[in-house]
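Self-study notes.
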Amino acid sequence: MKKENIAIHSTMLIPFAVGGVQAALTLGVQKLSVISGNPVLGKMQEFLMTLLMPGMFGAMFLADNVHAWNLCVAAVVNGLLYFGAAWGVLLLGNRLMRRAREKGVS
């Protein structure tokens, strides 16, 4: 594969992986909601729940109901949100690396 093709594939593959992992974690949120007694695992679970909250808020917004919302909708919202964020970060990083190479920095 050419170097350009590898860059294009990684620019799409990484965001799909990030979005997919976040969507899968959202579907498994019921297991994460019971905080472990182990302090390290408990903090990791709290951090993961913080990352999953935007999708849950999005599902609540789309359902127009705070008490009854679909977890699948939250997974889709999280997947799309984190796909877009990872894609934007990769595009920005690639652009900055290209500019640095053009200027001869690295």
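Second protein, same conventions, sequence then structure:
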Amino acid sequence: MAKRGGPTLIQRSRQVPDEQKALYHQVLGAGKARVIRKFLGLTPADETAIRERLGKGIRENLARGVK
């Protein structure tokens, strides 16, 4: 089998930003089968608690005028 030119799969994946890879794996689905992988393993309750805590901090900062 002839070797094709250009970067390998690993080399190409290094050019993709980490944020884009995370989007593929956690939101859009990766590969042909569109597999969703939950890296952090957060439960829905964890996600809710994080959203509430972040929202509270943002609201407090906005109320104080912090940028």
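Instructor comment on the second fold: The chain has three helices and no strands.
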